[in-house]
Structure formats: structure tokens, C-alpha cells
Amino acid sequence: MSPDEIVEWAAAHLSAPSDIDCTTTVMLKILDGKCKMGPGDKDAIPLLYDATRHRAGRLLGEDMHVLIARARNGEREALVTEIYEHRVLAETAISRPVMKAYKAMLRDAGVLRGGE
User: Fold this and answer.
1) pTM of the prediction?
2) Integer CA distances (angstroms), 90 to 8, 23, 114, in order
3) Cα 44 to Cα 41: distance, rounded to the nearest angstrom
4) Where are the alpha helices (DSSP H) in the chain?
5) Residues 69-90 pLDDT 10s
């Protein structure tokens, strides 16, 4: 999928609060350097995130969006520990089956090519 197609798909399909939480969590994982996705898949996640960050999650709120914005705007190194802590908490709060279903949905739609 092209970047524009990914953004369009996200706007149309990622509306459930759990989808927003999963997208935010994977974004945190990319920022803390623990994401095992390939480069193409890692490039897709920020597109999904940017297309959906204005939507409400169930578990993760505006504080995570502020942290992500700070990291993306050059403060990443200073925030490594904080990003890591929030990522681990988010991964603990979201059940494995929910995250696996989210990633499978992205693969089935062609947004992601591989698994993590």
C-alpha cells in the first residue's frame, strides 16, 4: 500500500478504542527501539498513528500523545526511560490476543507485510 492508501485505510477502519490503543502502543515500541518490524512496516505505523491519534483510546490518552510528540520532535534520547516505562505498561494493559488480532488485521488489509 502507498502511504496515502495507508492513511485512507486507517481513517476508514481504525476507529475502535482498542485499535487506537494498539496503534499508540506500537508507536511507543518503535520510539523505544524495541519494535522488531521490518523497515517498511515500521514506516507504516507512524502513518496509522497520525491518521488516528485524534481518536479516543480506551487505555491511553492525551498524555501518551504528548510524550510521542516530544520524542518525534527531537527529545527521544532524553525520554528513552519514560517511553520504555509507558510502552511496557501499555503492553501489559492490552491483552496479547487483542494486539495479535490488531496486527493480523493490518496484515490482512495489506498495511503490514510481515509479523512482529
Assistant:
1) 0.90
2) 26, 11, 22
3) 5
4) 3-13, 17-31, 39-52, 62-70, 80-93, 96-109
5) 999 998 877 788 899 999 999 9
